[in-house]
Amino acid sequence: MKIQLGFDIAQELHADHAGTDEVGRGPLAGDVVAAAVILDPAQEISGLADSKRLSARQRQSCYQQILEKARAHAIARASVAEIDSINIFKASLLAMHRAVQALQPQPEFVYVDGTHCPAWDYPSEAVVKGDARIAAIAAASILAKVCRDREMEELHDSFPEYGFDRHKGYPTAAHLKALKRHGPCPAHRRSYAPVAAVLEEVQLQLERV
Question: Which of 17, 65, 189, 199 is a plausible cystine mate for 45, CB 3.0–4.6 Å?
């Protein structure tokens, strides 16, 4: 069965093929979140498209449809500590690996958004801009995006001074200003240059005392 994606992209669906994608490589704070989805060829998801091309309301609509209609779905993550330990590239692959492993049933083939596949035994293919080309990747991108945005809004409740509810941890001017003013919180990625620079400045100030 073919499903018509948003922006005139048609994708053949297979009941044993999964798509996986991650969200959160660029932010200065928070986990990197990945999702994996096996779509059901008999269940159409209206408006399915790359999460970056959808409004928040459209993503929420697709998110609910995916939960209700997908044959399988899973969400996983790599923590801030893991990002700082192994770097964001490896952490992103790790999060996608965990998401695919959590699928029930397990897929026979996996499409991975990007240029690299995780080190695993699944037959798979990395697809550049796969979230705009492969239906299952588009679905995974929506699950990961909605989940991570919600988590950053919850983080805002604990650390409102940074504005996580607005920028979701990305290095906006307002976020960088708040970071310099308040210093990093526990959710900030210490290995990222803007955060490391603030920590270095704090250390220099302590040494001057």
Answer: 65
**Residue 8: pLDDT band by 50, 70, 90 thresholds?**
very low
Task: State how far the Cα of 170 lies from the Cα of 45, in Å rounded to an integer.
Answer: 30
Q: What is the pLDDT of residues 19-55, one digit of tens each?
A: 999 999 999 999 999 999 999 999 999 999 888 889 9
Which domains are delineated in the chain? 2-208 (3.30.420.10)
